[in-house]
Design brief:
This protein is an all-alpha fold. About 70% of the residues lie in helices and about 0% in strands. The longest helix has about 35 residues. The protein is elongated and about 85 Å long. The relative contact order is 0.12.
């Protein structure tokens, strides 16, 4: 089977990726390709272009996952920076109706 190249994936993505990104995405893509083929037995799933497309999909998915995890960690750390006093301060706002004369 023909090997998926970094250049092929970068061309479809429209941006450069690292060798590590390619290796990780390709590992997931191969597993997904195998899973799909076992379920559907369609020969098209085994074609090279299909594996390239799955690899591109996983590069995007993994990048989005990392972005989301980094954002969550950053927000979580920001919450830790807030003083506890400010979080516990209660402000009561009572609206009391005035009787009409």
């Amino acid at each position: 089977m023909e090997e998926v190249t970094k250049q092929e994936v970068e061309e479809q993505l429209g941006q450069e990726i690292t060798a590590e990104q390619l290796a990780e995405a390709l590992e997931y893509a191969r597993r997904k390709q195998e899973y799909i083929y076992k379920r559907e037995r369609r020969e098209v799933v085994l074609q090279h272009w299909y594996l390239v497309t799955l690899t591109v999909e996983y590069v995007r998915n993994l990048a989005f996952s990392r972005f989301t995890m980094d954002l969550c960690a950053k927000l979580h750390n920001m919450e830790k920076e807030c003083p506890v006093k400010d979080q516990d301060t209660l402000t009561l706002s009572h609206i009391v109706a005035q009787p009409t004369a």
